[in-house]
Write a structure and sequence with these properties.
single chain, Methylamine Dehydrogenase, Chain H, mainly beta, 2 domains, 388 residues, 3 helices, four-stranded antiparallel sheet, disordered N terminus
Length: 388
């Protein structure tokens, strides 16, 4: 699907969909997995109520949006827990998990059996796995030394040769509109960008005051807006590769330049946003939870009733557009944000439907005009061209 046709389809759904409202108290409450350290959360794209959690007790699955969990990692190595999980959006029975030291494993039957997928990996130290939004057989793995790529669902891997030096890749984000554009966050070398599907990479660090990147978030409505969450030293003398300032950083020009936000001197572990409200972004940090109502430019804390400030993973719950889950060192928490519609200026349900249609029509014309200009300016480069 072209970029322009994607906007047409999105505008149609915006006109046709309502804005559900959920009750809540704008505070955190523990819902499950008490005393369990939760490292990662994701959902089944075809069944939003089905969740997967990477925990200190292994891989777990929930069928009811996180209230009840069962173990599905009986066939996985039991000596150490995995650190990442991703589900094939076209086949929910295909699930990948990554290990720091054991490589990548896959199930094709929903977790009943597992097998390793390490052919071609130069080392088994895997830190993240992502699937291309246009091709479920195209996988990227961030590992010690760079980015590994598979074009056949993980059966074989090859290393991207686009890095000028060996880097440890903590996270990878793919432009949802044009998956040729990728970002990689590294432990000590900052952010790298590719404009050709991972063949080549360039570092894009102008403005970053920390080069240890733990998480990345691409704005689905404007992929030139990218957020980077960075590590902050525990003490003023514990500088990480010479960098002393962690927190949330933001680019509005596709990585050419980065700006500091007001969420600094803190370690950011993850970002998330609801598909229905992409302009409202949440951050999980070593210090609590934070929310931005302006696509990551400014932040406020949302820590009411938060009894554990170590939020390793925040996850916007699909199908419930006001609920955010948080994986902590001592369980799974839930937060219902009843202010979200007010924050984006969409809380007045008394407006006639025609006004929504008119607004969507104006936005469509503007978006098509901008995308045509951007498409002409951002043709996919080869390995010798810039990534812009």
């Amino acid at each position: 699907m072209t970029r322009i046709s994607s906007v047409l389809l999105l505008s149609f759904f915006l006109c046709a969909a309502g804005t559900p409202a959920l009750a809540g108290d704008n505070s955190w409450s523990k819902i499950a997995l008490d005393t369990v350290h939760i490292l990662s959360l994701t959902s089944d794209p075809a069944r939003p109520a089905t969740l997967y959690a990477v925990t200190s007790q292994g891989l777990k699955k929930s069928l009811d949006s996180g209230n009840i969990w069962t173990d599905i990692g009986a066939g996985l190595p039991g000596d150490i827990p995995p650190n990442s999980v991703v589900v094939n959006y076209l086949n929910s029975k295909e699930i990948y998990v990554g290990y720091e030291g054991l490589g990548i494993f896959k199930t094709t039957d929903g977790g009943n059996t597992w097998h390793s997928l390490n052919e071609g990996l130069p080392n088994p130290y895997v830190r993240c796995i992502v699937i291309s939004p246009k091709d479920p057989n195209l996988l990227y793995a961030g590992i010690q030394g760079g980015v590994a790529i598979s074009t056949n669902g993980g059966k074989q891997w090859h290393m991207s040769s686009g890095f000028r030096r060996a880097v440890n890749v903590n996270c990878i984000a793919i432009d949802p509109r044009n998956p040729q554009f990728l970002y990689a966050g590294t432990g000590g070398a900052g952010v790298f960008k590719s404009g050709n599907g991972g063949v080549s990479w360039v570092d894009v660090n102008e403005g970053l005051s920390s080069l240890s990147i733990l998480t990345l978030h691409i704005d689905p409505e404007d992929p030139d807006i990218v957020l980077a969450g960075a590590y902050h030293p525990a003490t003023p003398t514990d500088f990480y590769v010479g960098q002393s300032n962690g927190g949330a950083f933001r680019t509005v020009d596709g990585g050419r330049t980065w700006q500091e936000t007001d969420l600094l001197t803190i370690t950011i572990f993850s970002f998330t946003a609801h598909a229905q409200y992409p302009g409202v972004v949440y951050a999980g940090a070593w210090g609590g939870a934070y929310r931005s109502a302006d696509r990551g430019a400014t932040w406020t804390d949302i820590n009411t009733n938060l009894d554990n400030p170590f939020l390793h993973k925040v996850y916007a719950l699909p199908g419930k557009p006001q609920v955010v889950l948080a994986g902590t060192t001592y369980g799974l928490l839930s937060y219902t944000d009843t202010n979200i519609e007010t924050l984006i200026g969409a809380g007045d349900d008394s407006l006639p439907f025609v006004l929504y249609g008119l607004a969507a029509g104006v936005a469509l014309v503007a978006a098509v005009f901008l995308l045509v200009r951007r498409h002409r300016r951002r043709a996919t480069p080869d390995s010798r061209k810039p990534v812009w």
